[in-house]
Amino acid sequence: MVAERQVAVLPDGEVAGPAPAPGGSARPLLEVAGLRAGYGTRVVLHDVSFTVEAGQRVAVVGPNGAGKSTLFKCVAGVLRPLAGAVRVQGGPVAYAPQREAVNWHFPATVWDVVMMARYPYYGLWRRPRPEDREAVAEALEQVGMAGLARSPIQDLSGGQQQRVFLARALAQRARLVVLDEPFNAVEEGAQAAVIEALSRLRERGVALLVSTHDLDFVAGSDWFDRVMVLNGRILAFGPPQQVCGRPSATGSPSMVRWAQPARWAAWASSAPSESRDGGTA
Ligand SMILES: Nc1ncnc2c1ncn2[C@@H]1O[C@H](COP(=O)(O)OP(=O)(O)OP(=O)(O)O)[C@@H](O)[C@H]1O
């Protein structure tokens, strides 16, 4: 039986029951329904609904403060939604927060940090088993960090820190991997290794939810299956060519828009109507 982790809070505080499978079909790996989230009295996300299927790669883009990290925290179960539901099929979510959100001065080695992902799998004696060590070694190999396994994490460059996060997500062997700006500060050469490691996950049916400010990468490659444009609510959600292939009147996507929220919002609101339904395309 496939395990289901559910983070679901209805407006009256009642925990939601499992969603009915429409027409008896298999449920999506991730289902977010009517999510409202924020901090204290401040609501950051309004009525966010979407689904992610096994093996899909979804880019989440939006200006600073759009609520991308907030959405990811809700999906990872780190932040409790104010309303709505987050349903995840198939066990734990591997979550790599933004690099800045972590205390990198903590006295630990690369190996230790990646091994933390294996804690839930430890056996009776709560010690790493050979398969845990294997999973960690394989994950470090995949992101090109095997040679730095014994290095203290405080000695790493920004890009190396990102790759440690990614290795942790890989070692966790989760079916849903949520990465908050994984390409941020990753050196040119290392970015290819990271993308290759992420590409391999699809073969295992792993779904990816990735936030990025690199709109050129999102729009200019067919690496992502879906793009979500988020700014407090979902402005567009669909295949990259549908969401990013703008009419020339508003110009082609470029990083400039991220620095100019008003122009960016105009661009986003010019999305074809079929890609603005907030659901899966
Ligand atoms: N712990 C917190 N307490 C209060 N407000 C918060 C907290 N974390 C985020 N916020 C606020 O919530 C809003 C959304 O922040 P969030 O980090 O989700 O946006 P983002 O899209 O990830 O932004 P960026 O691209 O800059 O990382 C911002 O206005 C932010 O200041």
Describe the structure.
This protein has 281 residues and is of the alpha/beta class. The protein has a single domain (53-77, 93-275), classed as Rossmann fold (3-Layer(aba) Sandwich). It has helices at residues 68-76, 110-115, 130-142, 158-171, 188-203, 215-220, 240-244, 256-259, 261-269, and strands at 4-9, 30-39, 42-52, 57-61, 83-89, 93-96, 176-180, 207-211, 226-230, 234-238. The strands form two sheets. The protein has a six-stranded mixed β-sheet with strand order 6-7-8-4-9-10, with helices on both faces. The chain is globular. It starts with a strand and ends in a 12-residue tail after the last helix.
List the helices and strands and how they pair.
Elements: E1 4-9, E2 30-39, E3 42-52, E4 57-61, H1 68-76, E5 83-89, E6 93-96, H2 110-115, H3 130-142, H4 158-171, E7 176-180, H5 188-203, E8 207-211, H6 215-220, E9 226-230, E10 234-238, H7 240-244, H8 256-259, H9 261-269
Parallel strand pairs: 4-8, 4-9, 6-7, 7-8
Antiparallel strand pairs: 1-5, 2-3, 2-5, 9-10
Helix pairs in contact: 3-4, 4-5
How many whole angstroms does the radius of gyration measure?
19 Å
Q: Indicate the overall shape.
A: globular
CATH architecture: 3-Layer(aba) Sandwich
Q: What name does the CATH topology carry?
A: Rossmann fold
Q: List the strand order in the largest sheet.
A: 6-7-8-4-9-10
Largest sheet: 6 strands, mixed
Arithmetic mean pLDDT: 78
